[in-house]
Amino acid sequence: MKILVVDDEQDICEILQYNLETEGYEVDTANSAEEALLMPLTDYSLILLDVMMGEMSGFQMARRLKEREETAAIPIIFITALDSEDNTVKGLNIGADDYIAKPLMMKEVKARVKAVLRRVTAAQSNAARADHEDDNEVKYEGIVLNLDSKTAMLDGEELLLTKLEFEILTLFLRRPNRVFGRNDLLERCWPHDVYVQDRTVDVNITRLRKKIGKYGKQIKTRVGYGYCFES
What's the whole-model pTM score? Predict the structure, then answer.
């Protein structure tokens, strides 16, 4: 992982760089916020940022980073001699992940760096897992639809659905509480080269209600509008 240290005191940059590199990190340094902002910031997994610097403070740099979509998610640990509660709160409100007061204790710095990176990595892993699940599964309580295998489970048991029933239920569970008119359902779930009467939609909805048991009552008819799955 790459870490960027931003501090206008060169000796502090060198001390942090040395100690973090002994932990296996790749470390770059900058002696001002202005210099740091010219660097490829998206390459870094973490920024250690001094608050009190020259023309641009660490707080100002952090605000810029959080305002930019491409850098908003980079974790920041503020390092500063300003250890008052107000400054800590200010830094955290900007979006910092942690706050370390000078004089620096290297064991503490290493521990906090590891903790932040571990937390961020876990959050990214959970988000990626959730995205993957969202792509491959649609769930509502005891109903689980696997979009890859085109299988449906109801309270742990396989649910035998026709292709149309599967498509309709997928649409309902992806957009709960949204009302779909018959034309919407025909457009989204039926083959476009097949002529289907409106009544066919009603028949499939009735069959689907029966197949999903206790959840069938959640497929509501909105007279004059269509159907929705009420969560």
Answer: 0.56
